[in-house]
Design goal:
Number of strands: 12
Structural class: alpha/beta
Largest sheet: 8 strands, parallel
Number of domains: 1
Helix content: 25-40%
CATH architecture: Alpha-Beta Barrel
Length: 274
């Protein structure tokens, strides 16, 4: 009797074990350990492939002062180089509404297709109003610009301070060299030329912890020797005062710009290729 009971009880346990195994298998197989984003998640956010452009046109705007000149007749040259804050604001608003996006000169080294129209905004000399007037307006439109600095003038009257320049750099503004003292580069000897290009580059890199590769010729003066020295020192672009729009045909060390004045009409200016 006891033997019969033991055999019967064992048989029942075996049957129950066999009946439950498929359920146990289904539950276990439905739970998988987490191993980060699934393949589906990765596919939903593909890494964009940049489309390089064989042909392109990128306007480079040239500004000096953003200020109001009280008596233009007494300072005709200064007035011609000045744009009032109100007009500068309207110019930036027009660019924003027309679908422009700001890029640095380095973009021209290897231009890629963007979802908006690229444009470079530049300021020569590093005047104080670049910080007090231009900078707030640029931020308002989420624009970035390149500021070419005369390094020996920083911290002096009418020019920006290093603290102001660093603040702008931290926001995303770009900086380039405009030499140490703004000489005519075609009228100085090789040693002085080397010092003007190298010292200004080193000073900017030391103060801003940035690699400086963009240059602006003082008063637009340069020659073949200037370009050779710029290349030796590691510069990659240089802008001139020659009018035009940068394209795939442009020499990266002879980049043309569009001079901005207080009455400049951007729509007409950008429609002109030279």
């Amino acid at each position: 009797m006891l033997i019969f009971f033991a055999v019967t009880f064992t048989a029942i346990l075996i049957i129950m074990s066999i009946g439950q195994s498929p359920i146990s298998h289904r539950v276990t197989s439905s739970i998988k350990p987490s191993s980060g984003p699934s393949n589906t998640s990765k596919a939903a956010f593909p890494t964009p492939i940049e489309e390089k452009l064989a042909q392109f046109e990128v306007p480079i705007l040239m500004y000096h002062y953003i200020r109001t000149v009280d008596d233009p007749e007494k300072d005709k040259i200064g007035a011609k180089l000045s744009v009032t804050p109100a007009h500068f604001d309207s110019q930036m608003k027009w660019l924003k509404n027309e679908g422009y996006i700001t890029v640095n000169p380095e973009y021209l080294l290897s231009p890629v297709k963007l979802d908006k129209k690229p444009i470079v905004i530049t300021f020569d000399d590093g005047y104080l109003d670049a910080y007090t007037d231009a900078y707030p307006i640029l931020k308002n439109y989420d624009f970035k610009a390149t500021f070419y600095i005369i390094t020996d003038s920083v911290n002096s009257q009418y020019y920006m301070t290093w603290d102001q320049i660093k603040e702008m750099k931290n926001y995303g503004m770009n900086f380039g060299s405009h030499t140490s003292t703004h000489p005519n580069l075609t009228k100085i000897n090789n040693e002085t030329l080397d010092n003007q290009l190298l010292w200004s580059k080193n000073k900017l890199e030391t103060e801003l912890s940035l690699s400086i590769s963009d240059f602006c010729y003082p008063s637009g003066k340069y020659n073949d020797g200037t370009i050779t020295k710029l290349k030796e020192l590691g510069y990659k672009t240089a802008v001139t005062t020659e009018t035009g729009i940068a394209s795939q045909k442009s020499d990266l060390f002879k980049l043309p710009r569009k001079r901005m004045e207080d009455n400049s009409n951007l729509a007409l200016l950008l429609a002109q290729k030279d």
